[in-house]
Amino acid sequence: MLGLKAVAWWLTGSVALLADALESIVNVAAAAAALAAISFSARPADANHPYGHAKAEYFSAVLEGALIIVAAMLILHQSWGAFLAPRAPEQAKLGLAISAVATAVNAAWALTLMRRGRALRSPALIADAHHLWSDVVTSAGVIAGVGLVALTGTLWLDPLLAALTAGNILFSGFRLLRESVGGLMDESVPPATLERIRRIVAAEAEGAIEAHDLRSRHAGRYTFLEFHLVVPGSMTVQEAHDICDRVEAALKAELDSAIITIHVEPEAKAKQKGVPVL
């Protein structure tokens, strides 16, 4: 796709199409980083990383966000030069047709990446899909705009489109950085997911009294959960363990790749403000 967009720019001389090609350079670098991160994150837990290597994917997403911002700066520089010395695009029909083919392929690939990234809960794949889809949106706008330049002869539209492309890329880059840093900072699961977890614990922990101090975090495709489960003081270890097994099975059925830690406490530890067991 990078090669096709480069040919489209070479044929037309359009700075907006050059901006589109520059973003594709970032796509290539980001995809390489994502591949390396996913390969590393797939390694099993070891003595030095007992919780696994899943967070490596967030580093890839942070790098991709930084690369997006660098690409936007390069595009703004090119658009300013073209605004000072505008030129009409050459061989516009052929160049735009080639760019349209590249955009259509990128759209199909972005949707594939997003579908697989969500299924695998992979931050690196989802980040790559978001980046590629922003490329599709800007490419469509560039194609329409350059076509308008060729039809009307309004030359300043070309650098303006390049600058707007850079603005959209910057927005995408900052959003990606925000999401990736959130993962590195052990953000909790979304409120809706947390509420589902509370309902499952309340429904499945029959025999216990309450659950409290529920904490969660993400690490790549894994969700880490931990909480305290209060049981009657007279309950045997085996009975308490059976309740924990039942709760864990229900949570893992709801949350793929969940890693759960439950600390059992006697009824004297009840806080009366946790999850009451139904």
From TrEMBL:
UniProt similarity note: Belongs to the cation diffusion facilitator (CDF) transporter (TC 2.A.4) family.
Cation efflux protein transmembrane domain span: 2-185
Main location: membrane
Subcellular location per the Swiss-Prot or TrEMBL entry: Cell membrane
Keyword vocabulary terms for this entry: Cell membrane, Membrane, Transmembrane, Transmembrane helix, Transport
Gene Ontology cellular component list: plasma membrane
Gene3D superfamilies: Cation efflux protein transmembrane domain (1.20.1510.10), Cation efflux protein, cytoplasmic domain (3.30.70.1350)
SUPFAM superfamilies, alphabetized: Cation efflux protein cytoplasmic domain-like, Cation efflux protein transmembrane domain-like
Protein name per UniProt: Protein p34
Transmembrane segments annotated in the record for this chain: 58-80, 92-111, 132-153
UniProt superkingdom: Bacteria
KW ATP-binding (keyword) present: no
